[in-house]
Every structure is written in structure tokens, then in C-alpha cells.
Amino acid sequence: MRTRSTTTAEAIANRKWWILDLEDVVLGRAATRIANVLRGKHKPTFTPNIDDGDFVIVINADKVKLTGTKWSDKIYYRHTNFPGGIKSATAREMNQRHPDEIIRLAVFGMIPKGPLGRAQISKLKIYAGAAHPHVAQNPQPFPL
Q1: Residues whose CB is less than 8 angstroms from the CB of residue 67 and which lie 6 or more positions away in sequence, other chains included
Q2: Residue 52 and residue 46: Cα distance in Å, rounded?
Q3: Most buried by CB count within 10 Å: which residue of 56, 88, 104, 134?
Q4: Are residues 124 and 34 in contact, defined by beta-carbon separation less than 8 angstroms?
Q5: What is the pLDDT of residues 83-114, one digit of tens each?
Q6: What's this model's pTM, rounded to 2 decimal places?
Q7: At what angle do helices 99-108 and 27-39 cross, to 10 degrees?
Q8: In CATH, which superfamily holds the domain spanning 14-66+99-132?
Q9: What would you report as the CA-atom Rg of the chain, rounded to the nearest whole angstrom?
Q10: How many CB atoms sit inside 10 A of residue 37's CB?
Q11: CB–CB of 18/55 below 8 Å?
């Protein structure tokens, strides 16, 4: 008996759209579930070298929950590519300026790096409020 791998054409044809409301959901737990769906690990046809995952729409990203004192203790760093250009912001400041970036960075750390990971993270759509423009795709509620 031979092991059958999923082809790219089959993976593209079988993609679904999921919607996830992050109101009062812990960031890390949601990020692991999102990363698994983006990679396709929730499907029995999972193939590590194929982009077999589904699309994920995240709404209410500004209402995500962090445990403990992470709102003030967790620091996000970025660099401007100029000498001495390191910038830092706490999780509270990031949530006020770019609430979608907190989710994107948490999920990005959990997917593979390289061309496959970039293709997988492009299927993640994050919105700070409850409105999103993907109604035509008929997204299903995300099972947490």
C-alpha cells in the first residue's frame, strides 16, 4: 500500500473560511489554534510541505485577553534599519495603535519560516472590530 500525499491543486480546491471572535479569548490559546488551521494540521490530509490550510478571519482583535501582568510587562521590539533605531512598545500600547499586529506576531511565531510560512500567514485576515468584508465567502464559526 502506498501513502498518498495531497497535491497543491487538491489543497486549493478544498479550502474553507473560518471566522473567530477573540472577545475575552486568551491570546496564546487562540494563536495556536489559528496556526494549526492555517497550516492544515486539523485535516486528515495534512502534508507538511504543502499549503493545505484554510482561511481564518479574526474579528474583535482589540478585545483579546492577556493573562497576568502581560499588558504592561510584554514588550514588542522592532527596528527601523537605521543606526540606533530600535523601538519598543508594551502590549497595551500595541493594542491601542495596532491591535491586529499582536495577533499576527503571535501566530507568525508558530508557523514555519520561509516561502511556505509566508503563504500560510497570508491566509490570516485580522480586524479590530466586528465588521469584516468577507461575508461573500460564507465563513463558518471557528471551533475553539
Answers
A1: 26
A2: 7
A3: 56
A4: yes
A5: 999 999 999 999 999 999 999 999 999 999 99
A6: 0.92
A7: 60
A8: Ribosomal protein L13 (3.90.1180.10)
A9: 17
A10: 24
A11: yes
